Amino acid sequence: MNPSEVAKITQNLQVQLSELETLQSMYTREELRVEDLNVLAHVNAFVEGRIPDLPNYLDLTVNLLVDKQKFELCINLSHEYPDAEPDLYVRNHKLNKQQHAAINKDLTEFIGGLNRGEECIFSAISWLQDNAENYVVLEQVEEPTIEKNETLVRYWIYSHHIYSKSKRKEILDLALKLNITGFCMPGKPGIICVEGTTSDCNEWWQEIKAMNWKRIFCKISEQCSESSEDFLKFRTFEERVFHNNNIKCNHMDMGELFKFLEDHQCGYIFKDIFGVEAKSNSSC
To answer: In this protein, which residues make up the domain named RWD (predicted)?
Structure first.
């Protein structure tokens, strides 16, 4: 990374710290939470020039009461913020999938209409306070029961990146709730494999892709015509991190990923996902 890039990231992080300090003066610790204080300390140390390594992205959670309804605003700030949009996701236990998708889509469009280079977290909070109640249905209508299609599928999901802790938790929690197996590899790029019945995997995918992503898509879909447990390659769903020995590299070790896939009889998929043959050792 050249000096001008480092200087720009340092400037952006200074803005993030200043904005966070302002928000902390306005909200209590219960209302505004920094998800990882070690990351915050790393950001401060990097800005002050005490360490050369880039910090991880800041994850914040804002808890708001709107018309007696609790909303969570999950925020992930990349090194490019405020020049790039923040990664935002709104949660409320009374919202169904469609309502979650609608409120997050509208919030994303609102943030996208603001000037880049300017702080916008408080604007997002204000928008949520003004509009959140419009998405809540107090009396849920019971949805008709749909008979499950027991056909088994496996989806290979490719994302530009997966850093946000709130998204990673949602990916894991929803998979466990729906009895889906597979894994999630965070980082850049992010890779997710989900396998299970068609209905369960579709429900998981519809909810996850409704989040605010820079880019995410189902790259490969595999299907088993018969309900056979031999089709399933994973016993549980877990997050897997394949660390690269090069501490200056933010990417995962692709050699370790390939070994993991081979151990689960999925090595064949590596070339289909990345377009290249696997190598025993990965470089940055």
So the answer is: 18-135
Q: Does residue 247 have a pLDDT over 50? A: no
Cα dihedral 258/264/267/270 (nearest 10):
-60
User: 51-77: buried (b, 16+ CB within 10 Å) or exposed (e) per residue?
Assistant: eeebbbbbbbbbebebeebebbbbbbb
- At what angle are helices 198-209 and 97-112 packed, to 10 degrees? 30
Taking the alpha carbons at both ends of the chain, their separation in whole angstroms is 13
Strands 181-185 and 69-77: unpaired
DSSP state of 108: H
pTM of the model as a whole: 0.68
Predicted local confidence at residue 210, as pLDDT = 83
One-character DSSP codes across 165-192: HHHHHHHHHHHHHTT-EEEEE-BSSEEE
Written as six digits, the tokens of 14 are: 């200074």
58 contacts 34 by C-beta, under 8 angstroms: yes
The Cβ of residue 95 has, within 10 Å, a number of other Cβ atoms equal to: 20
240 touches 185 (CB < 8 A) = yes
Please determine, for residue 282, whether its predicted confidence score (pLDDT) is greater than 50.
no
Residue-wise pLDDT tens digits, 117-127: 999 999 999 99
Which CATH number is 3-135 given? 3.10.110.10
Peptide bond preceding 3: is omega within 30 degrees of 0, i.e. cis? no
For range 210-237, the mean pLDDT: 84
Closest by alpha carbon to 80, among 107, 58, 111?
58
| CATH architecture group of domain 152-274 | 2-Layer Sandwich (3.30)
Which helix or strand (DSSP H or E) is residue 77 part of? Answer: strand 69-77
